[in-house]
Amino acid sequence: MGKLLEQIAEPDNLRRAFFRVRANKGAAGVDRVSLAAFEKDLDREIAALRRRLLSQERYQPPPVRRVEIDKPDGGSRPLGIPTVSDRVVQQATLQVIGPIFERVFCDCSYGFRPGRGAKAALSHVRRNIAQGDRWVAEFDIEGFFDNLSHKRLVRWFAKFVDDPEVVGLVRRWLKAGVVTEDGIRRSVATGTPQGGVISPLLANVYLHRLDQEATKAGLRFVRYADDFIVTADRRWKARRADQMIRELLADIGLSLNEDKSGVRNLDRDEIEFLGFCFYAGRFLRPRDRAVASFKAQIRYLTRRKRGISLQAVVNSINPVVRVGGTTSSTATSPELFERLDGWVRMRLRSYKRKRVAKPGLNWQMPTRMLEGMGLVSLVSLRKRRLSPAMG
Fold it and tell me: CA triplet 56, 62, 68: central angle to 5 degrees?
């Protein structure tokens, strides 16, 4: 039995993994066992997982339950829900092998890594722009998480993980398949486990060669999962980077969405990265789709027929405003937040006016009255996050 698998199967490691999984919440998988049911007899469940992991028959991951969820802009997308027990095993595995990969991953990679994130990736790009970069090579991989090659991924994974049992475990996760809403089990030939805790790490492993080659070539390359760009101070450098990365992606079996890829100029074009738009070469604002989604949520919560008090409406929209303020705290366009705050207040005043049917009440409710009801402001959230006193 490999040493890494033994570490994964340690009861303390499995227990820590469960509490991480519980913190992330989530529904039951194909076995219909919920987090609460799993925790009710936690010691027995942990012991059973340990036996299955160390058994000669080997741990066999169950298929992922696949459901369709509605998208804010219409249509739907598939969501994968592994069983609670399998999420625990994936998290336990991540806790053991994650540090191994952290020692080899490149500095240009920011997605799903401890101590890193989207804000740091955006700051990296902003530094490049501040140093004079005005040309950008944008890339959008076509269906990355669904199309990466299992054979390549397992081969590259095995270069860093010296334990055939763990390599085999990853291979079985990749082949576990899905169960659709109508109960049909389907096998998968490409892609990472849908909704799997281990999937982000596997994605970073798959694109590690891209990180290495870009770093070796001296490109100003920034990647967050499958979203990455190159900035340059000359057009020819951006074009050369574009050609090089296209060839690399083709070599590892990936293709680009051409409508969202190509070389752009920051002084003429808006550049999208991680849900934000760089424009005029200097400013950063949330993309239009994110603003539209925020407005749609507020519009729904302030609809006339809710039939609840204005205070209750304020309480219900504050979490939406807080999330919007958190995700947009990197932006450098305060006027947008001022406009959105004004629009939110207008929606609340209109809600109150329509409920009491008194003309003119819209203007009889000053901002300080709404603030007194605890209304959260995007502008105040942004100022708080930019304040040195707040760290």
Answer: 165
* Distances in whole angstroms, Cα of residue 100 to Cα of each of 168, 212, 222, 265: 17, 17, 22, 39
Reference 281, options 109, 130, 149; nearest CA is 130
The C-alpha atoms of residue 270 and residue 223 are separated, in whole angstroms, by 18
Paired tokens of 219: 């490109």
Nearest to 141 by CA among 281, 246, 272, 57: 246
CB 209 within 8 A of CB 156: yes
- Terminal C-alpha separation, the chain: 47
Instruction: State pLDDT tens for residues 193-247.
Output: 878 899 999 999 999 999 999 999 999 999 999 999 999 999 999 999 999 999 9
Which pair of structure tokens corresponds to residue 99? Answer: 């540090």
pLDDT in tens, 18-73: 999 999 988 999 999 999 999 999 999 999 999 999 998 889 999 999 887 765 55
Of residues 172, 8, 193, 150, the one with CA closest to residue 88: 8
Tokens encoding 171: 């291979």
- Cβ atoms 268, 318 nearer than 8 A: no
Q: How confident is the model at residue 103 (pLDDT cuts 50, 70, 90)?
A: very high
Global pTM reads 0.77
pLDDT band at 388 (very low <50, low <70, confident <90, very high): very low
Residue 117 to residue 114: CA distance in whole angstroms: 8
- 373 phi and psi, to 5 degrees? -85, 0
| Rounded CA separation 165/198 (Å) | 16
Q: What are the tokens at 224?
A: 């967050």
From residue 298, give the alpha-carbon distance in Å to each of 117, 301, 304, 346.
Answer: 27, 5, 12, 11
Percent of the chain with pLDDT strictly greater than 90: 50
Tokens 């340990």 correspond to what residue? Answer: 50
Phi, psi of 65 (to 5 degrees): -80, 125
Cα(157)–Cα(151) distance, rounded to whole angstroms?
Answer: 10
- What pLDDT was estimated at residue 282? 57
Coil, helix or strand for 272? strand
For 226, the 3-state DSSP assignment is coil
SS3 228: strand
Indicate the pairing of strand 178-179 with strand 64-70.
Answer: parallel
Distance between CA atoms of residues 365 and 347, nearest Å:
12
